[in-house]
Amino acid sequence: MIRRLAILILAFAASLSAAAAQGVPQGFRTPADLVRASLVAEPAAVAGAQPFTLAVRMQIKPGWHVYWRNPGDSGLPPEVTWTLPAGFNASAIRWPAPERIPIATLMNYGYEGEVTLLVPVTPPPSLDPANPVQIQAKLTYLVCETECVPGSADLALTLPVGKAEPDPANAALFARARAALPAPALWPLRLSSQGDTLQLDFAATGLKPESIRNAAYFPYAETAIDNAAAQVMTVDETGLHLTIARSSPTDPLPAALPGVLTIDEVGTDGTRRLAFAYGDEPVLPAVAAASSAPNPAGAPPAVAEFDALTLATAAAFAFLGGLILNLMPCVFPVLSIKVLSLVRHAGEGPARLRLHGLAYTAGVLASFLGLASLLIALKGGGAAIGWGFQLQSPAMVAALAYLLFAMGLSLSGVVHVGGRLAGLGDGLTRRAGLSGSFFTGVLATLVATPCTAPFMGSAVGFALTQSAGVALAVFASLGLGLALPFLVLTLWPPALRALPRPGAWMETLKQVLAFPVYATVAWLIWVLAQQVDPRGLLAALIGLVLVGFAAWAWEHGRAAAPGAGRVARVAAALALVAVAALAVTLPRDRAAPSAQAAADGVEPFTQARLDALVDAHRPVFVDMTAAWCITCAVNEATSLNTKAVRAAMAERGVTYMKGDWTNQNPEITRLLEKHGRSGVPLYLLYTGTGAPQVLPQILTEGTVLTALDAVPVASGRSAALTR
Fold first, then answer.
1. Sign of the C-alpha dihedral, residues 446, 450, 452, 456?
2. What secondary structure does DSSP assign to 644-659, as a single string?
3. Were 107 and a residue from 38, 201, 227, 607 both cysteine, which residue would form a disulfide, CB within 3.0 to 4.6 Å?
4. Whole-angstrom Cα distance, residue 12 to residue 330?
């Protein structure tokens, strides 16, 4: 601390002398002479929702240096303050591997000659081609030789809006910059303490001692080791070993030591420098594939979970997910109608029942393929959406609530559609209810969208990264899984013989089945309350009243005289027109206050806050949810909000962040896509080191507690972080 304070005082004094223009000593330089800074973009143009990379290039005068994120014994790292257009988000700096720079008795970590700092930037979903993107940045730095000079530079860049393709003029610069970044950890690291030293054992079997000229470890924490002490290297058949002096030998052994390992390896083509990051360095987005960066020998390529899927496995996962969707509570109301419809048709003969099964399957498949086509088209146009996107529209939620409410009234006997119950849509045609089975399949698909079953998330995420043909094949498999149980009942004769015969009991069962439909309506209205303001909620409730009035007027008109019947039917039609007008005019994109407010130790999700916690090596649990996601609500009630889970999080100092996807949120969409998902739920556990653990979509309390066991208790962790 004394050395750091001394160097800062020296830097401040140097800045005052540099500002005195004519009075500086002969050997002194102004910051502009010492560092030439520039801002460069990898693409020639920017496209909506297409992440790209910026480079802050610093060309340093020979003999001088700037600093790494951990500057070592003295100095300060460069900082960049961004001024970006609305909707743009700049992530943290990606730091190249540093060098050890001795200055007298001190050891600094930094860069000489030239350094390029890469910064990922994500634009909003849509951009106006007529408005070029204006990017500004304020770079501040400390550049040192034996004396230090603080400097700054105002950087600016203007990019057109268009197809995001790499700029050939900048390709070499970005290739060199990526090659300088540490690769993901190649060998397991075991940390132990030997008196006043730390022993770092890397399981790098197969290394030849004569080929390793030097190795060094650069911890992210500034006070973890004695920076100036020599790092003693040995290489044997068990791997690479470094003995490093501790800065505070009396402190407990840290649970982890995130940082960067560098190795100078001698080969037939000379000496090359390898660097590996031990920690949770994020992946850098790129306009062009970053394959130009050399892959260390023997290092497996980093592949996202969904990239490892093939069409066959994705289709199989989608099929299994569709089967499980039949057990989800959001599909239960339609399942009840299907069962009652099948009982109704049990006496029509096997051939006719098979037609009902095929009609229902056709309705499911047509709906899934139509939904997939719309989703693919919108994403191709730059929209940041995913599975369940239609329920982010208050108008769609209200329309679905009105439709289910009308269905419930029909089941309760308030209104009779088509004169007899043969499933939703039976009155649309007189072909013995086949269209009713088709539209029951359509409704089953619609109400299934708030649910994400196991296996389904990775399959849909894979589909939305592939060609349209592959995506449609995966969605068709999902639909076939959803339709299969009902289809099997109609195609398999023993199942048909097991069905009871129609009778008077059906009317009672029909009325009983209306109540889960009403429960679904209540849930949808609750979802709507998260999306609209109180006036919008009142309008939606009035819509329910109008639906009830339309049903009453229509049924009353059936039994009235011809003149009165026409008046009643006109009144019912006008009420339905008013309902449609209310649904269309509901306000959109209102943030859900209950989900956004930090309460009970839960923080609202923002990418900037998550990046800050990850960079500080803090443990974080990320819960991506939505008000319309029933799976999410069940997981929260049974597995996340329990006393045992909350106590385990508190004991380990885990920050609980919740992202609300009830309304559109491009930041949440991007995080979902990063982990191969197209919808909620998504659960991530950042342990403080390494990549996040992705938890299953269906949670149990035991699953969460087992995952939390990987996070050290808060006392030991905080001690390691504060040294």
1. positive
2. HHHHHHHHHT-EEEEE
3. 227
4. 64
Strands (E), 562-625: 602-604, 620-625
Reduced DSSP (H G I as helix, E B as strand, rest coil) percent helix, strand, coil of the chain, to 5: 45, 20, 35
Identify which of 119, 448, 166, 138 has the alpha carbon closest to the alpha carbon of residue 284.
119
Give the containing element (helix H, strand E) for 687.
none
Distance (Å, whole) CA 618 – CA 392: 32
Pinpoint the alpha helices (H) of 345-393: 350-380
In a 3-state reduction of DSSP, which class is residue 43? strand
Determine the 3-state secondary structure of 706 from DSSP: helix
**Residue 439 and residue 635: Cα distance in Å, rounded?**
31
Query: Which residue in 686, 685, 619 sits closest to 650, CA to CA?
Result: 619
Q: Which residue has the tokens 């109008």?
A: 546
Report d(CA 326, CA 320) in Å as an integer.
Answer: 11
68 touches 220 (CB < 8 A)? no
Q: Measured between alpha carbons, how far is 298 from 277 in angstroms, rounded to an integer?
A: 16
* Whole-Å CA distances, 143 to 109, 136, 366, 570: 12, 22, 64, 81
CA–CA gap between residue 336 and residue 515 (Å, rounded): 11
Is the sign of the CA dihedral 18, 21, 23, 27 positive or negative? positive
Q: Is 521 exposed, middle or buried (0-12, 13-18, 19+ CB in 10 A)?
A: buried
Taking the chain (723 residues) in runs of 10, the rounded mean pLDDT of each run is 47 43 40 88 92 95 94 91 88 93 91 96 86 93 88 94 91 93 88 88 87 93 90 93 90 85 85 84 42 37 41 80 72 63 64 82 88 70 54 77 81 62 37 69 72 62 68 85 84 67 66 78 82 79 86 77 76 80 63 44 85 87 84 84 90 90 78 77 87 85 90 57 35
What is the rounded distance in angstroms from the CA atom of residue 146 to the CA atom of residue 11? 11
Q: What are phi and psi of 43, to 5 degrees?
A: -85, 160
Determine if the pTM surpasses 0.90: no
**Joined tokens for residue 335:** 């399942």
Element housing 282 (H / E): none
